[in-house]
Request: fold
Amino acid sequence: MAHGPGVGLDGQGQVVDDPRPMRITTLLVSVAAVLVCGTVAAQSTEPFFSPDRVRAHVAFLADDLLEGRDTGSRGNEIAARYVANQFASFGLKPGGENGTWYQRITFQQTNRTADAGTITIGGPGGEQSYPHAGDVLIGLNGREPKLDISAQLVFVGFGVEDARFKLDDYRGLDVKGKIVVALRGFPKGLPSEEGAHIAAVKAKAAESHGAIGMLAITTLQAEKTRPWKVVLQYANDPDFSWVGPDGVVFSEAPGIRVGGLLNGPAAEAVFAGSGHTLAAIRKEADQNLATPRGFTLKTRVRIQSESTSKRVTSPNVVAILPGSDSKLAAQYVVLSAHLDHLGIKTVPSDDQTDDDHIYNGALDNAAGVATMLEVARAAAAAPDKPRRSIVFLASTAEEQGLLGADYYARHPTVPITQIVGNVDLDMPLLLYPFTDVIVFGANHSSFGKLVADAVAPMKLKLSPDPMPEQGVFTRSDHYMFVKQGVPAVFFVTGYANGGEQAWGEFFSKAYHSPKDDMDQKIDWEAGARFAEANYRVTRAMADSEVPPMWVRGDFFGDTFAPKGARAPR
Reply:
């Protein structure tokens, strides 16, 4: 799952003296297990979902030798070839470009120089400079390697606009040529998924009013959800943007030249002389449906930073299982899972007590890819082939901002108008015998009933979003299909039967850390069960007479597919 720091421009094993021989053995055993299990499965006429097969895929992809599968890395390329060879062994057809398994994407990677930059705030309270990664974070802009921008500041509340929810934080404000200061997130009490989207596009809102930059300040709720010390872990990560076929670096809001986050004294300083305090604004914003009014500040800001950029490539891996129904085969359902993770890095961490700096991403998201591979194998081996065609997409650069999925949704290898639905598999928590599933986005389309009916024979229940404060809906690859008008959901294990505790412990101890590795007590039976659930859902999508549809009056359907067919609410 993408971490989304919001900075503007947007292992059971025993300890051994030398773990590398053990890892190499694990890698070879993993491959052998997958090949043997695949041979056995081919002899069966019923779908069988093997815990050993799921484990073998995860063990390979999360092995230290792949070094965390970072975007553009050798480990990521090895992972991509592994997935492509699995697709080939199932008898699927290449779904990438030029008859290959790959859709290769060029990215611009932007890194900070030794001089990471400063934010200087001046006004009635005097002038103070704050270095990057202290009380401020400065966003990277690959289009401007040397930034030195000064401008007046304007507070814009949450900085959001939406007619349906009567949000208009820019009314009466002149922000042209200025840098806006906005609260992170969205007003409390808004539906979490709609609110997450509205917050995700606030840079575009600022750009539409002529602003040239955006600084974000944390709310009380945001500080609880993602404390500043957690945000700082991503302070020196590079920034990635995909490069289009025309060679142009993509940005949704290119007019926003600079962005950043302010904390503590830096956040307080912007309100000097305004008659308002940060504490009072945060208190107001913490009330239900509160939308603090904006006002012109009496402070100015100067933002300086330097960066260097280079071009790297990384592939989406794509396979197709052609549909069997002559009337429906031209329609596609997409099952996706991101293949990348965070690579190798050293960051400040309270619980990092050893020398392990490899972010293996066993559950995030080798487990999702393993699930997708099991579904692909079962669908290809089924005697009754799916009626619609199925696209299996192992995407890249999800951790960099859902970039591989965004590129695919904008440059699909099949017509986007013929993609009727997407199910995304990201970070299924296979640590307990789950009895329910969470399907983020299910209430926006007929996916809700489809999923419920598909998994009912397994005695699985659908549960509502238990963590709306995390804004999960905009933090995984399905969101990029939604933005192209495709009904899409994000599928994970639920909070029942020990799930809530497991999720809490994972987020606090292993998420986006070297501890997300094969040393976790992973329940491989749960992995097989999760694969079965997703096979049932994928087949339901592919075989139903009517494809998934947005429900009548839905926010996302009306926003991104206003002319499409509708399901009753």
Q: What stands out?
A: Confidence is low (pLDDT under 50) at residues 5-44. Residues 20-41 form the longest helix (22 residues). Residues 452 and 462 are 6 Å apart (CA to CA).
